[in-house]
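Changelog note: in this version the structure field was regenerated for every chain. One regenerated record is shown below for reference.
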Amino acid sequence: MAALADLKKAVSAASIPDSSNENGGGFRTVPQNLEAEQGLLGALLIDNRSLEKVGDFLKPLHFYAPAHQRIYQAIQTLIDRGQTASPVTLKSYFDKDQDLEQVGGAAYLADLAGSVISIINAEDYGRTIYELYLRRELISFGTDVINDSFTHDIDRTAHDTIEDAEAKLFKLGETGETKASFVTLRDSILVSIDNVEQAYNNKGEVTGVTTGLKDLDEKLGGLHGSDLLILAGRPSMGKTALATNMAFNAAKAYAKSGGKEGAITAFFSLEMSHDQLTTRILADQSSISSDSLRKGNISEQQFRDFAQAAHTLSQIPLYIDDTPALTIGAVRTRARRLKRQHGLGMIVIDYLQLLRGSGSRQSEQNRVLEVSEITRGLKALAKELHVPVLALSQLSRAVEQREDKRPMLSDLRESGSIEQDADVVMFVYREEYYLSREEPAQRAAEGPDKFNQRYADWQQRLQDTANTAEAVIAKQRHGPIGIVKMFFDPNYTRFGDLDKRHS
């Protein structure tokens, strides 16, 4: 076909240096197959139903020739509108297209349709076009990495280049990726039977990742893959301590059971450094207060206990990333990398409001939109890696203005999307914290007996709530809501079951 020859002439100008040539004088042609592009477009013009075979994964940008990109886009547009895409219906769109004029103008559409021998190979043509697009992108990707590496920017390190390269490579790998859009009811039923059978064999025990807290596990059934869980609370309520306990307990259970229970856990600590977080865990496991460890006020025996706890903990598969101000894209990249290299069964984010969005101008100007983007990204990550994602969140100050300071869903800060995207929303609440700061004072004209009774009531309430905390489950997509009471020891930042008060 004469038009094909014309296109090949244009392609011959697009070549890249052949680095494999020792003399450095050779050039290689950019990967492309114009015959496959023409064959697919012709098949689509003959039978529009062929688009069903390639429409899920093949996009206009995957074509090499600009004219073919626009033709494919126009075919898609007409078919999506319920119209017929043919050389006749497309002719008016391309009468003055400069790229098409170089190969014969609108008559080129008739040439495409007229040269088709069979439409059976439409999907094979589409796969070939997509494969060659990926190869061209990989060449461009490699060139960008080289250029970025040569650029000396004081604000940009080599690790920044590596991270960007990983993100681009993953994004490229996802482009055009196709998975089954539908699952038959029969197949879905078989999966459900397997899940119920597993739960039945566990005799009502945890079916998801354990939190190490029996009462909380019973209420939630453990932390389940693909779920986004929000753990929120006001400052000093202990949400970081609870999340740390849950992450450590899950990783410890994994190590103890040989991988049958628990999970390899990734902890993104955007607020605390990795050593501060680890010191909290060591304080809990060695039963030495965090304050004593920080100040060094420990005995020789306590130091030996500390060293023993450190040795034991070194075998626990808990991975901590304390990089500040991470983007949701960076979290996704690092989680994928960890899963590929070591495996991954659970992700903890401390905390959600310290993450950044993709950096788009719209999200940067509107914090609510940015938080919405972050929560959608975390939910998508949970589904993609099929792991539970536990994200901590701050609460608004409105809690402090109420007489009953137990949090509600409306207290979530900055975005209703947190509640919307989450499968589970739970709050950490410690009444003791507020009571200890509300010591009664004698009111004017209040008699001593009345004041003493009011003071005694306050002391009793303070005693009743000492070392207790509540996990208020305000939303659970697949289960009941309610309150789970827990034991809390502030000296060791330790949560436990209320009926097992640790010493």
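Spot check on this record: The chain has 22 helices and eleven strands. The chain has three domains: 2-174, 187-270+309-429+473-478, 431-466.
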